[in-house]
Design goal:
By secondary structure, the chain is mostly beta strands. It has one domain. Strands 1-2-3-4-9-8-7-6 form an 8-stranded antiparallel beta barrel. The mean pLDDT is 93. It comes from Kribbella orskensis. This is DNA ligase D-like protein (Predicted 3'-phosphoesterase). InterPro entries: LigD_PE_domain.
């Protein structure tokens, strides 16, 4: 019996602080940088910039990427879990995650430590950027900002500032 694909949200303090939302697709982590992080409010559209694929092993990475190379800085695992693809075509037939991403709309249900419920990535057409939006469901909560309420790692319990201080 196949296991559910994983997702991870890593808080990354590189050139600027952002959340890397990564979803397992065809053996790699498809990734988007979301500067303001995921919102539980379905009326809020968050910019999501596609980044390079990462290996599945990277899902558990926390630490400080040293030096002044692209991507250097502190990283924590802000949330993780499994997801279910919910993307359907116009006739209601399932669309694979890879085909959904290629087509510019990917809907999925997260089951994580912090995040749950349905979400969607939609390509905007402007410069290849995407939007991340929370779908209206029982897990939507416009009054809760999880990025502020729960800033710590689900693995180490450290905040991004505490992780950055470990390099000293």
């Amino acid at each position: 019996m196949p296991t559910a694909p994983i997702f991870v949200v890593q808080l990354h303090d590189a050139r600027r602080l952002h959340y890397d939302v990564r979803l397992e697709v065809d053996g790699v982590l498809k990734s988007w940088a979301v500067p303001r992080g995921p919102s539980l409010d379905p009326t809020v559209k968050r910019l999501a910039v596609p980044t390079g694929d990462h290996s599945i092993e990277y899902a558990e990475y926390e630490g400080v990427i040293a030096g002044s190379v692209y991507g250097s800085g502190a990283v924590i695992v802000w949330d993780a879990g499994v997801y279910q693809n919910q993307t359907r075509d116009k006739r209601g037939k399932p669309v694979s995650p890879a085909d959904a991403i290629e087509g510019g709309h990917f809907r999925f249900r997260l089951q994580g430590v912090k995040l749950s419920g349905s979400w969607a990535f939609t390509r905007t057409g402007r410069d290849g950027d995407w939007l991340l939006v929370k779908v209206r469901d029982d897990a939507a909560n416009p009054s809760l900002d999880l990025t502020s309420a729960e800033p710590q790692s689900i693995l180490s319990g450290l905040t991004i500032e505490e992780m950055a201080a470990t390099k000293d």
